[in-house]
Amino acid sequence: MNSLNVPKFSDLVRPDRVHRALYTDPMLFELEMDRLFGRAWLVLGHESQVKAPGDFFTTRMARQPVLVTRDDGGAIRVLVNRCPHRGAVVCTEERGHTPHFQCGYHGWTFACDGALKHVPMANAYPEDPRGLGLKLAPVPRVAVYRGFIFGSLASTGPELLDFLGYMRTSFDDMIDRAPDGEIEVAGGVFKHAYDGNWKLMLENHNDTYHPAHVHASSIYAAKEQPDDTPTTGAGEIAVRQMRQNGVPPDVWDGLGLWTAAYGHSLMGDYHDDKRLVAALKDPTFAQYRSALERRHGAKRTDEILGVARFNTVVYPNCTFMSQFRQLRILHPVAVDRTVVYTYSFRLKGAPPQMFRDTVAFANVVNGTGSPVLTDDLELYARVQQGLLTQANDWVYLGRGFGGDVPDRDKTSRGSLGTSEIHIRNQFAAWAQYMAQAQ
Amino acid sequence: MATAPDLREIEQFLHLEARLLDENRYDEWLDLYTDTATYWVPLERGQKDPYETSSLIFDDRKLMEARVRQFHHPRRHAQTPASRTCHMLGHIEPLDGDSGDAIRVRSNFILVEFRADRQFIYGGACEHRLVRAGAGYKIAAKRIDLINSEGVLDGISILL
Predict the structure, then answer these.
(1) Is B131 exposed, middle or buried (0-12, 13-18, 19+ CB in 10 A)?
(2) Model confidence, pTM
């Protein structure tokens, strides 16, 4: 598209619609990497991925490769994965354990806190490179909230807790559900991609207007499936979840949908499937509940299990399902290409079968071959293609517009569960980030 | 009484499965599987089981039937238009130590998928567990290890 004719940011984002350039313009995408992904707190992972000194994993912030390590002193470090010498990516492994990192090009070697330890043939330098401040550069800001690791590429900005606001209670929900009070990443990482802008996934995850249509075929397939077909248990979970997408419109409209500052949102009260959520008759769940009660007593257990949330969106790079122990981190690749990593979590102290159910749930909700997810990815691509048309410059976000009301803890609530309040809120945050030059 | 597996018969059976998939004859494809079959595309190389680690696809009979039914729905968006595929099988070999009544068969494959002006190539190894059913075989389990299962993948809306 013609980037030169793009209007000012304030003209691109209106209260109930946005300009299609926000999804299609490569120059705006570059600016987003700088002004939005270059500033916001980004979810990077969980401390269970770096349990011991020397443990590490690699990821990206915006498009920059970074290395998350636990150093010899036990501190979590987030380092730019780029040799200060000639620029090569230093660590090419996805995860592992190492006493140090060595660049493949000239053998410069770094400690797990990023310090330059060794330079081969160092005598040819006019002064020792270790005295020049050369190192694997730390990311400007790093913070951990209850085990979740966040980084920001900006040296100033809101504190993490201010940034998260009420959304921190969704992280609390995820962790509080563990009978031992701890969770860990487990069960493998799905990595899927789609031909569409990064925003499309964030808009979709709290979009309760779409399932009846995007997922019509999997809803149909699951509803028609006889209950007595043989199952290992995994197919049972999948069929139940696919059916859940087929609840009637009044259920979707009745859901709670809340937004908060910085573009975040969360969906409440979604699930009513007794196996997937909370049923005393289910033996695994009864065992789990007992484990929680042993630690917390019945009253607190009721409170913990009473929190009913589906997706929480932490703008701009993460969505997660606290109740179902799923977390996705998105990596924008280009204006029309996005990669998503999805993780499952194990609740420590919960019955082993519960994690098996989590794995089966992950397969159907986040799996690369999921009958559900694949239809979402197809629709993202269709939106991306459709927005290349020049006949209509506007994306209309008017569902529930005018009905957003202030609610608890500085949130706003949509007038109905299928409101597009969460998308309007994302773009309000987008406009704020993008309007600030430096 | 067990008899040594007939390689030609096994090859023909696997070719039949591939052809049914390439011709989008999913109901007939499903009929090749036993009532307690599993169809498994692991996420990780060397993955030990489908229960403790996620899978790109792990279907038991229940989910296989639902997945096949989904192909028939007019709003299976990720299959609109439907994919065209070409399976190429090779290196088909029964594994040692099996009787003729229940055998494991290893093969390699290349699969080309064309859909909506894009072409995808998958490659990897398969292991079929076949059981005798009348004069022929049925598939009790199929495991498909993609060489890039741990890499970034676009959505998989076909059967491999």
Answers:
(1) middle
(2) 0.95
